Each structure stands twice: as C-alpha cells, then as structure tokens.
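assembly run, all chains below
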Amino acid sequence: MLVGALFAGLVFGLYFTLVGLGLNLVFGVMRIVNLAHGDFLMLGGFAAYGLFSAFGLPPLASALIVLVVFTLLGLPIYYLVVPRLLAARDSEMLSIILFFGMSQMIEAITTIAFGATERSLPGRLLGVGPVILLGQRLPSSWVYSAVVSAVAVVGVYLYLYRTRLGTLTRAVMVSRDEALATGIDVHRVSAIAFGIGIALAGIAGVFAPFMLGSVTPAIGAGINIAAFAVIVVGTLGNPLGTVLGGIIYGVSLMLMQTYLSSWANILPNLLLIAVLLIRPEGLLGRQVRRA
Amino acid sequence: MPDRKRIAGDLGLAALVVVAMSVAHGVYSNELLLFNFVMFLTLSQGLNLIYGFTGYLPFGYVGFFGAGAYGFALAVMHLHSPPLLALAIAGLAALVLAVILAPLLRLSGAYFAIASLAAAQALYEVIANPDLQDLTKGPYGVSLSGVFAPRLSYFVAVAIMAVTFALVVWLRNSRFGLSLQAIREDPVSAAMAGVSVVRGRMVAWLLSSVIAGLSGGVFAWHISVFYPDTVFDVTFSIFATVFTLFGGATTLTGPLLGVFFLYGVYNAIGITVPQYFQLIYGALIMGLVLFLPNGLVSLLTRRGFRVP
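ok done. output:
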C-alpha cells in the first residue's frame, strides 16, 4: 500500500508540476502573481471538453491547439494590463488584486456561456485499462497525463536554456532593470513568457477532467491554492524547482488520501502555510525574494 | 494633531449611518436584507482597519467570521450559554485564531494574502470534517433555534457596527493610526523614527479579527441555521475587499460608499443572476487597480478635499 501510494504520488506530482509551472514562470519573469492561473486552467479543461464533443478531438490534439491559442491569447492580455501594473509602486501586491478581478471575470463569463454544470471526459480517451508499472496498477490516463507533464517540463527547460529567447528570458528573471539597460526588449520577452505561462495552465486544464474528475467554472480558486503551494515549496521564481514542489505535493497528497483520507483536502493549505513560515525561500533555497 | 472639526466630521458620518440603520429597522420590513447591510458595513470597516491602515490584505478574512460563527454555535450547543456570552466567546475564538496566525504578518503583502486564504480554508476543512461530527456537526450544519431572536440580534449587530466605526475614526485621528500609516508607507523608516512596527501591526490585526469574529457570531445568532459552507464562503472576504477598494481604504466614507452602492446593486440584480454581478465586480476590480488604486474617494482627496 505504501509503495502504491508513493508511486501514484509521483505520477500525480508530475501532473501538479505542470499545474504550477506556468504560474512560476510568470512569477519568475514578471514578479507578479497571476491569481487567474487556475481559471486559465479551467478554460483549458472546457476547451478539451468542447473540442471533444464538437469534433471528437482526442486530448493530445486539444492540448496542441490549446498551446497555440492560449499563447496567442496571453500576448494581448499582457500588453493590456501588465506594463501598467509593473509601473505601480507595489506591483506584486496589486497584481494579486488585479488578477483576482480577472479570475472573477473569467469564471463569470464561463458560467454565463456554458452554465455551471460539471464537465468530464471519458477515461478511455487516454487508453483502456490500467497500466502496470513495477507491479503497481495505475489508471492509464494518469500515466498519460504525467508523461505529457514531463514533456512540457522538458520543453520549458529547452526553451529557457537552449534558445536565444530563453536566454533573454533568464536575463529578465535575474534583473529586469539590467536587462532593460542592455537593450533587451523586456516587454516582448515578458509577453511571450506570459503567453507560455497561460498555455501551460491550459494544457494542464486539458488533462484536468482525467486527473481531477471533472471541471466546473468554479474550480479555479482551489487550483490556485494547490498551484501556489507547489511553486512555493519548490522555490518561487525558479520554474524547474517546480518539479520538486510538484512531486512533494503529489506524494504527500497520495499518502494523506491513503492513510487519512478525510483530512486530505487540508494538505495544500497546511503545506503552503508551513513552507511560507519556515522556509519562505523554498526548498531549493536561492534567496530570490523577501517574503 | 487632533483637529476637533475633523473628528466631528468623522463621528457625524458614523453616527448618521448608525442612526439610519437603526431607524430603517422600524421602517423597512426586509429584516434580513438590512442585517446583511449592517454585516457588510461592519466587515468592510473591519477589513479597512487592517488593509487600509497597515496595507496587509487578508483574503482569508472570512476565516475569522467563520471562527466567530462556530464559536457562537459551539458555545450555545455545548455550554448552553446565553447569546451575549456566546457572542463574547465568538470574539474570543477569532482573537485566538488571530494570535495563532500572527506569524503570517512576517510575510510580505502578496504572500500574506494567499497564506491567510489558505489558513481560512484549512479551518473550514477542520470544522466541516465529518470526523468531528460530534463536536461541530461536520458538514451537516448547526441549528440554534433555541436562542433565535431576530430583533435583538439586529440591534446587537448595529452596536458592533457602531464600535467598528468608532475604531476607524480613532485610527484616522490618533497618533497610533498615523504611526500605522507610516509603517504601511515605509516600515524601515518608521522603525527608525521610533515606531514599534510589530506592536502596531499586531494591534490592528487583532482588532480587525475580533470585529470579524463578533460579526460572525451575531450572524450565527441572527440566522440561527447554517452550514460550514455558509460562514466560510470566500464571498464574504471578496465582498468586503471589493467594497473597501471601490470606495477607498483608510477612509470612513470609502467602505460605506462601496457597501451602499455595490451591495445595493448586488441586491437589485446579483441575487437572481449572480454571474453577471461577478462579471461586473471582476471588471470593477481590474479597472480600479489600473486606474484608481485608491478608490472613488481619491477623486476628491487628490484634489485636496478632505473626506471623512
């Protein structure tokens, strides 16, 4: 039972890495908290549902469409709000309020357009029957989602460390002012990072119907807490630290569900508070912020 | 520094609202609606105490409200205490929670906001947990019909509101309130000028949480049947925050304006089609942050007018 829980936790953790990854990228580059992250994830879930019901598209195809559409969607959103926000005195605090407003708008529009009912996708879309790995049985949709998450993490790594734009992005992450002084088009770099961040949320959303059971317009707020817990545990502002945070989150969630199931929902909250209070710089410990 | 004319203006406005809400009870028959107005006037000013004067925005403000409501309910159910004693216990419950959560004040703005929300959710998960059904009745809710007294509880709520207004007026016109604003603007300089940063924030935090606790307690008393979902609904935090931001924090007028206008609109259109109201206030929040971060009253204050 313990091995099973650890194994499922690892798989779940990879998925939660994907859930937090975009939020952390946006925070790392712009030092703002995108509190509408969970709502973009929800939109991804609705997109997957809509594309499947209308055209019978499988989740993987939906994920590719979401990747392109959400990245393009992120650019105008960035230019509409973020430059103005970053010019304010306490942009980190104001960003929370601003994106909270955006999150409310997205939730409201989705409810108006599609209603508040639960949407789910048949699990058979991601393979039939359980996958047996090292003697442990796991639903194949979980394994599928975990593999996609791993691919997304590798993709972000390649983007940041193997492309010119990625190098510029890392320069902005280290110091926005110095990047500006060296002639980097900070807004262009940030806008693309913002688009990618939203697209990552969208892709996580495509697999949300399988990993979380169903999607409703209201799931955003809960996802935000989980995503925030993941990235705080795995060091804010360091996108690759998210992997560690995701796996710790996934494993502890599965252990709680196995041994103390009625208390499992409390976990992300306690994990978040504990890490913020005890080790606010995150487990990977580079001093990136003053909490 | 104390300017009699200013204090008189602030107190006059506070008294006007208190009297208006008392008289309204005799004139207007929808008692629950009036009660909700009183409750949000109290909660918004309570949030104003901590957000307006220290800059800390507790998204989890509802945690204190819920703690108060359940403090009241548990006192009535298990100790059979009279309502007013139970109300004191409600305030105490929120106070204890605030002391436990005080370390969160070490976090800076954004982290504090999210951590306080996480704390409120954690408390909800504890109270709504089926394992604790014997103590809290878990997710199935509590019924306090034995102490049901809508008229009395309404006026107690008005009294709590009056005390809250008085606190805001005090902070706006006292040395202590000014020192809090200095801490908000620049904690390091304030500390160097001899202001006790930790003590100042702590006092504002405790006052603000006790107000939410008392508000939750009197809410429990007034409606007498409720579920954990009712009193830990994040909507309470959201509404109090939006009302305060809309009018303008650190003033007495701002939150009043927010409640009377926005909550009025909400009651006109929001109850039948809540998602349209949600859309409107989402857009309002974004617009306010981008274009009017100090609320509606800043249209006047930035032109040199003093608003109570």
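Residues 2-126+137-219 of chain A form one domain.

Residues 194 and 256 of chain A are 34 Å apart (CA to CA).

not gonna interpret more than that til we talk
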